[in-house]
Design goal:
By secondary structure, this protein is α/β, with parallel strands linked by helices. Helices cover 15% and strands 26% of the residues. It is globular.
Length: 216
Amino acid sequence: MSATFQRLSREEMARAVAMDIPDGSYVNLGIGIPTLISKCLPAGRDVILHSENGILGMGPGPKDGTVDPSLLNASKEPVSLLPGASICDHSMSFAMMRGGHIDVSVLGAFQVASNGDLANWDTGAPDAIPAVGGAMDLVAGAKKVIVVMEHTTKDGKPKIVEACTYPLTGAGVVDRIYTDCAVIDVTPGGLVVRSMVPGLDLETLQAMTGAPLHKG
């Protein structure tokens, strides 16, 4: 088993996702770690960011600290508009999502199952506030669904599981998982590990995961 390994930070996870998004993609960024991706896209990358509250052509928060309260993403964080950006109402924005016009949807998750089931809106905890937002529309309409999250919960329980125990956002929708430990593809043959952080081996990663893993 691995002696030592360093988990990725939230920013490093976001950067890993950003580096893998193809040029020309229309991408929706969910709440949490996914919002950091807007700051991590390499200069010159032709990626058009969409926010479900009605922004197409979203940029990162203003570098000079000047905040326009009318320019917020779905996480209610300040953003900017890139040249050529457009703003629309919710009905038009959700039509983009439901109509198959989003190439990549990047979301956080509470659980992902080995068959690609996604649970990211309700844990059922007494103090939890269920909030699905546009997640169900996104996973149903996007051409590719990526999850970025910590590999385990704060108390060390697996977030990648054989079957979700929380209410589903979508069934069989996840294509790839980025965690602070590894990049894992969801395939018809099961979960395939594409890469791991330095110092981590498959045996140790498997011990942290609630579903069988295969080395790609």
